[in-house]
Automatic annotation (TrEMBL):
GO terms for molecular function: FAD binding; oxidoreductase activity. Residues 1-17 form the signal peptide. The keyword Oxidoreductase applies. It comes from the Eukaryota. Keywords: Oxidoreductase, Signal. It comes from Aspergillus glaucus CBS 516.65. PROSITE patterns: FAD_PCMH. Belongs to the oxygen-dependent FAD-linked oxidoreductase family. Pfam families: FAD_binding_4. This is FAD-binding PCMH-type domain-containing protein. SUPFAM superfamilies: FAD-binding/transporter-associated domain-like (SSF56176). The lineage of its organism: Eukaryota, Fungi, Dikarya, Ascomycota, Pezizomycotina. The keyword Oxidoreductase applies. Residues 70-279 form the FAD-binding PCMH-type domain.
Length: 453
């Protein structure tokens, strides 16, 4: 990737308004400049168009195509095939409509990127963000979906820099930025291993991007920790265009920031080397409750549903395995089911089920691991890390803990941001270094990015 050319277009300022340029501004790069960038990236620049444009009046209107799009508009396969296909679009300015009706409303890109670079070599990761931080009005995105070099399994981890030493003596895998968790899990199963990753079976969760760089938790986290803790190396393209390796040995400050500091903030991560663990049997416990009236109101199969996954001991006897399952049942019954059980016999029913799988891959393939509430157009998402008692009864202690954590790390991570992205090329809401800029929105709920001071 030639990031020098990208910098000239990404950060073009509007001097009078102190805002980043948007497509309606005179300072917006000319067509010839975009053509020049397209030549620089070897013809991989995509001029994005709304996905449902064939449904609207104007050039490109096509009723037949509109009907096809309408049928698959909510399909993950459809979204992941486009650089502006977002799983959780906060503002959808061009949803499918009845294309046969004359006088349709205006269809535009809204907060989606105007152009995207289709990165196919180490040059927007695949994925989604419920806060729409992977979108930006008038922005240029880098589409990482096709960065898929062959997955590399290492029986024993070997640092890419032979002069570096590592405390990790187990297995590892080198994963390109375009891979999703289903692909990584399937590859791991061939070697009888597992990785710490997400539980979603959708095609939108990347194994390297914001999920991992933001922390990342999943079914195996109780046994092995967060996804960010599993990284041994990152390969990163900096705004200068330099490709560097960040590890516990090289660019240590960048390595630290990338493991929890948020995706797309310090540079473009094109691959990660992560730890692999030996496969284990797994169990799944599902607890749900609901009634017909709540289902109609919430648009879900149940008012409450949660899957509890557990890794069982590898090569354990059937007796030990059964003991682990019984202990898991006891904990779930005590902590969750017994709390809900008094509601049985009322209009609210409570159901709990337990299943055992021979391998983690069987567990992952065995069903949907998401709450049915995720199918709701307006899901309510809650934290699973702190219960109500912890949040309400220990408010002062919890506040003091967060203040201690962030006060110690904030200045350090800000310094890393300034060091590796001094011009603020990478910006997203509530990300490291977002201070001083704000998206000025109006009735459209999106707008230009402007300085606040």
């Amino acid at each position: 990737m030639h990031f020098t050319s990208l910098l000239l277009l990404l950060g073009v300022p509007s001097v009078l308004a102190k805002c980043r340029c948007t497509p309606t501004d005179d300072c917006w790069p000319s067509v010839s400049k975009w053509k020049g960038l397209n030549g620089t990236v070897h013809g991989h620049l995509i001029a994005n168009e709304p996905l449902a444009k064939p449904c609207y009046d104007g050039l490109g209107k096509n009723s037949t195509q509109c009907q096809k799009i309408s049928k698959i508009y909510q399909d993950a396969f459809f979204w992941e095939a486009s650089p502006i296909g977002f799983a959780y679009p906060v503002v959808d300015t061009c949803a499918p409509i009845n294309g046969s009706i004359a006088g349709s409303p205006v269809c535009d890109l809204g907060s989606a990127s105007v152009y995207s670079v289709n990165a196919t070599k180490p040059a927007d990761n695949t994925g989604h963000d419920v806060r729409a931080r992977s979108q930006g009005y008038g922005s240029l995105s880098i589409w990482m979906k096709h960065i898929k070099p062959e997955l590399q399994f290492q029986e024993k981890y070997q640092p890419s820099n032979s002069s570096c030493q590592s405390n990790w003596t187990g297995s590892a895998i080198v994963v390109g930025a375009g891979y999703i968790w289903n692909e990584v899990y399937t590859f791991a199963a061939k070697y009888d291993h597992i990785a710490v990753g997400g539980s979603s079976k959708l095609l939108t969760v990347g194994a390297v991007g914001g999920y991992r760089q933001g922390g990342g938790h999943g079914p195996a986290s109780h046994d092995f920790g967060l996804a960010a803790d599993q990284v041994l190396e990152f390969k990163v393209v900096l705004t200068s265009g330099e490709v560097v390796t960040a590890s516990a040995c090289e660019h240590i400050d960048l390595f630290t920031a990338l493991r929890g500091g948020g995706g797309g903030t310090f540079g473009v991560v094109v691959s990660a080397t992560i730890k692999f663990f030996l496969n284990t049997p797994s169990s799944r416990m599902q607890v749900s409750s609901g009634n017909g009236q709540l289902n109609r109101v919430l648009g879900t199969k149940s008012a409450y549903s949660h899957n509890f996954g557990k890794m069982l001991s590898r090569n354990s006897s059937s007796f030990n395995s059964s003991s682990e399952i019984e202990e898991a049942k006891r904990v779930i019954n005590k902590q969750v089911v017994e709390f809900l059980r008094p509601l049985n016999g009322t209009k609210l029913s409570v159901i709990s089920t337990f299943e055992k799988y021979d391998t983690f891959q069987d567990y992952f393939d065995g069903g949907n691991h998401e709450s049915p509430a995720s199918n709701n157009p307006s899901p309510v998402m809650v934290s699973r890390f702190f219960d109500k008692k912890s949040l309400v009864n220990n408010h002062k202690s919890l506040t003091a803990m967060f203040q201690a954590i962030f006060s110690q790390s904030a200045s350090k991570i800000q310094a890393v941001k300034q060091k590796y992205d001094p011009d603020g090329v990478f910006w997203c809401y509530r990300c490291v270094g977002y201070e001083g800029w704000e998206e000025i929105t109006g009735p459209t709920l999106y707008g230009p990015l402007c300085q606040t001071k």
